[in-house]
Amino acid sequence: MAHGSGSNCPSVWHKNYPVAQGNRQSPIDIVPHQALHDPSLGPVVLNYDQCTSMNITNNGHSVVVQFDDSDDRSVIQGGPLDNPYRLKQFHFHWGEKGCHGSEHTVAGNSYASELHLVHWNAVKYKTFGEAATAPDGLAVLGIFLETGDDHRWLHVITDALYMVKFKVSTTVNCFNPKCLLPSSLHYWTYLGSLTTPPLHESVIWIVLREPIIVSEKQLGKFRMLLFTGEEEDQRIRMENNFRPPQPLKGRKVRSSI
Ligand SMILES: NS(=O)(=O)c1ccc(S(=O)(=O)c2ccccc2)s1
Ligand SMILES: [Zn+2]
């Protein structure tokens, strides 16, 4: 859970963001045998083949790789989505040690980290900002990270993290996030929200069942990032930037499995 001073403490977010206690908040605990298998749910299709990555930024609460979303070169479609959603950015959530750090949990079990690929509905909405407040505006693909062997492609990101130790940005060229996908695209899907303020209830969540494997060493590089800027004398390590599971409030989780 994100501890620490003021705003990055989930238990007080509702004071400034009353929607934190809304009816479709994220993350949630996914209970596989209570999920509804929906045969009408087709496969999720990721068209990330062209190079649209732009930069990697430490934004003070995570590390974010941003993409050029001025056209439909990088989109997700299929599955629960009625049309293609454009890739805007991806970022991670992690803990300070062991297997805590993911936001979604599976039957009460958490993973060491969770990758979120954020997409927006550019067919129905003119801008990301407009989509971000619409009930079907965003689609976030969640991928669990489990510790084990080195992930050969995650190195491209983790080797760049020292450059964004403080709250800064640097360019990253031609990183195709398809290399961060597990072999199976079986997923759970449900209607939820952003997991950080402003907590908009605008996200169609697609959470992959199969985790990707990364090494402790690679995860450790996330933990050496700082919430603070270079000019600040206080150095607060960036870790535990995950929100705990929120009440399901009657929502149904569907599975493609
Ligand atoms: N963890 S999460 O994937 O739910 C998430 C939190 C914040 C974002 S955002 O930066 O895209 C964003 C989107 C809308 C408004 C402000 C920021 S995505
Ligand atoms: Zn996230």
From TrEMBL:
Signal peptide: none
The protein's required cofactors: Zn(2+)
Gene Ontology BP terms: regulation of intracellular pH
UniProt domain Alpha-carbonic anhydrase: residue ranges: 1-257
Catalytic activity entry: hydrogencarbonate + H(+) = CO2 + H2O
Recorded GO CC terms: cytoplasm
Molecular-function GO terms, alphabetical: carbonate dehydratase activity; zinc ion binding
Stretch list, region Disordered: 238-257
Top-level taxon of origin: Eukaryota
PROSITE patterns assigned: ALPHA_CA_1 (PS00162), ALPHA_CA_2 (PS51144)
UniProt EC number: 4.2.1.1
One Pfam family of this chain: Carb_anhydrase
Database matches in SUPFAM superfamilies: Carbonic anhydrase
Keywords: Lyase, Metal-binding, Zinc
UniProt family annotation: Belongs to the alpha-carbonic anhydrase family.
Function: Reversible hydration of carbon dioxide.
Name of this protein: Carbonic anhydrase
Species this protein is from: Mastacembelus armatus (zig-zag eel)
